[in-house]
Design brief:
Number of helices: 11
Pfam families: Chal_sti_synt_C (PF02797), Chal_sti_synt_N (PF00195)
Largest sheet: 9 strands, mixed
Shape: globular
Structural class: alpha+beta
Domain Chalcone/stilbene synthase N-terminal: 8-205
Oligomer: single chain
Helix content: 25-40%
CATH class of the largest domain: Alpha Beta
Family: Belongs to the thiolase-like superfamily. Chalcone/stilbene synthases family.
CATH topology of the largest domain: Peroxisomal Thiolase, Chain A, domain 1
Protein name: Type III polyketide synthase
Domain Chalcone/stilbene synthase C-terminal: 218-351
CATH architecture of the largest domain: 3-Layer(aba) Sandwich
Strand content: 25-35%
Length: 352
């Protein structure tokens, strides 16, 4: 009796989409932040040191916020309208020529807006997906939320290996800009951009295609105050401590041992590093600790420059960039890493 080859969750396709409005860092500083942060010392240097060259925007905050602030409801209405269009583009591109009748589940995450039914239902309807599709929404977890979203997809594939699963991350962080003259917000508003990215995951024999091997999660319970994402009357607001890069650098080696050890791998076995570019100081701190050259982290730096920190979407953009530009060889390993409120560190081992 011949045993069937083991099967693994496998990336069938990945596709990103962006709102049509692109604004360079120089433009938004001159047109908006220069006025908002006129009383903050070194505001221009703070914003331009983020490493972001340009970003995409679901709305133009230079126009929408010129007469003052807006409430949560006004912002979420834009999320519903723009998100349906842009997220829908990403999902449709990812599905491409795949057999849509095999799509059995749709998992989506965002930190940018909430409505019920969610964007996933309307997108599934528009694309003619079957009415029995199982939908899971992963909300308000922060920049690492792509990982639980992918894990939901992996679990679904393990239970139903003949189906396909849509895994989408969408962020429209610009909808929560506000003119509070605070240095911390200047950093955040200089970093975050809008994007969406969709992966379609199926099942394939071990070794065939880009496969998700295993994941690991670590909660750094004593550091929860260093990063947060909270709802206020005038929108959602993030907190981001300058100590975050140091904490991540301190814990990354132990984290990687737990992620890679069960597969008998070490950091030296990893050819591709797909690290969430939360900001330049985070990338620099991890590069120092892991002894990685800037070229080894090229994709992360590229995404930061061209799109900004797009929250939960960002690590998926890095994966897309690695596949498109670096073209990993079959059998090479990659590590995806993300960080968010908790502090929570997430990682996933990928074999190309």
């Amino acid at each position: 009796m011949t045993l069937a080859a083991p099967r693994r969750p496998t990336l069938l396709s990945i596709a990103s989409a962006f709102p049509p409005l692109a604004i360079t860092q120089d433009e938004i500083y001159e047109d908006l932040f220069k006025h908002w942060y006129k009383d903050i010392r070194n505001a221009e240097r703070i914003i331009k040191n983020t490493g972001v060259r340009r970003r995409f925007f679901a709305w133009d905050p230079r126009v929408e916020l010129r007469n003052g602030n807006l409430g949560v409801g006004d912002r979420v209405r834009v999320y519903e309208r723009v998100g349906l269009q842009v997220t829908g583009q990403s999902v449709e591109k990812a599905l491409g020529q795949l057999d849509r009748t095999r799509v059995g589940a749709f998992t989506m995450t965002t930190n940018s807006g909430y409505s019920g039914p969610g964007l996933d239902l309307f997108i599934a309807k528009k694309l003619g997906l079957r009415s029995s599709i199982r939908r899971t929404f992963v909300g308000h977890m922060g920049c690492f939320a792509a990982f639980p979203t992918l894990r939901v997809a992996m679990d679904s594939i393990a239970a139903r290996p003949d189906e396909y699963v849509i895994a989408n991350a969408s962020e429209y962080a610009s909808l929560h800009y506000h003119p509070t003259p605070d240095p911390e917000q200047a950093v955040i508003h200089g970093l975050f951009g809008d994007a969406t990215c969709t992966a379609v995951i199926g099942s394939a024999p071990d070794g065939e295609g880009v496969q998700f091997i295993r994941s690991h999660t670590e909660q750094l319970y004593e550091t929860h105050e260093l990063m947060g994402w909270h709802m206020h009357n005038d929108g959602f607001r993030m907190t981001l401590s300058p100590y975050v890069p140091f904490v991540l650098g301190e814990h990354v080696d132990a984290f990687l041992e737990k992620l890679l050890g069960p597969e008998k791998l070490t950091a030296g076995d990893i050819q591709h590093w797909l690290i969430h570019p939360g900001g330049p100081k985070i990338l620099e701190a991890l590069a120092r600790q892991l002894k990685l050259t800037k070229e080894r982290m090229r994709a992360s730096w590229h995404v930061l420059s061209e799109y900004g920190n797009c929250g939960a979407v960002t690590v998926m953009l890095v994966l897309e960039e690695v596949l498109k530009t670096d073209k990993p060889k079959r059998g090479e390993y990659g590590v995806m890493m993300g960080f968010g409120p908790g502090l929570t560190v997430e990682g996933m081992l990928v074999r190309f």
